[in-house]
Amino acid sequence: ESKSKERGGISGFEREMDGRYIEKQKLKADLREAVASNGLNIAYQPMFKADGSRIECAEALARWVHPEKGAIPPDVFIRLAEDMGIISDITRFILMKACVDCMTWPDHIAVSVNLSARDLRDNDILAVVSEALKNSGLSPARLHLEITESCLIDEPAAVRAILAELRNSGITIAIDDFGTGFSSLSYLDTLPLDIIKIDRSFLRNIVEDGRRLKLLRGTVNLARELGLKIVTEGVETAEQLALLNKYRATDLVQGYVFSPPVPAQNVALLQEAIGRRTPLPRRRNN
Ligand code: C2E
Ligand code: MG
Ligand code: MG
Ligand code: MG
Question: Does ligand 1 have an atom closer than 6 angstroms to the CB of 249?
Fold first, then answer.
């Protein structure tokens, strides 16, 4: 490499690659530090009954505000943490805190935590989950765990065994981002699952395109036939919501149309506000 420098100097491209590499190393070091000092935070996005009358669950979404760069999206830092081998530290932190936060909410509201494929590669997750429940006093009936299709690629039998054990202890298992992975429908029947979360890409054009709507309705019917509950993610508009309700195409709705991710205390406040909302007086017809 010193030879090529002697010949022509390093190119702009190489310099840029070095710059990006250094940047990434710095971000990794900062992430390691944030995780070690419990510097991550959680925002919770409620899942509502489709008519908006009640919050049933809230999803814990990891947040990292970098001291200089500001908020780093979880899609970025979760991937980094997986590469660095520290995702289990994040999962543990989120599980412990999410269970404690859930205990501050009305007790019909559950909390949902995302797991990485890495978390399901060994049995440690069983101990971590029971520690989080024991520490907080939360009933397993109020804990949901979300896995993605990518969790099932390697070691499907081992993953299945871990999920079965979690589910046998009363925890609810959801498959997240349904429809974006390799989407073999057959695993819906054989995995120990309770909920499918329909990815927001399924909602694209459902208002305009009848075929897209059919695809969504068919998928939902199939899942229902298998006894699964449906959560639809990323519902943004009143039109999308109306369509889902018209065809009874979802049980729960999670999306900006009802609420973005919010701080823990706002989950209870939001539920309180919904509960206080008095039904509109009926219009007399005479
Ligand atoms: P996800 O689990 O599918 O979470 C839903 C994502 O969709 C969240 O993004 C949420 O803010 C966003 N979202 C919700 N409603 C709407 C909507 O109406 N419109 C649009 N456009 N987006 C909406 P977020 O918080 O950026 O998280 C991204 C992903 O990062 C999550 O996708 C999840 O895969 C991962 N993630 C977040 N926290 C954790 C964690 O603690 N552990 C693991 N393993 N992954 C996490
Ligand atoms: Mg999720
Ligand atoms: Mg999702
Ligand atoms: Mg997603």
Answer: no
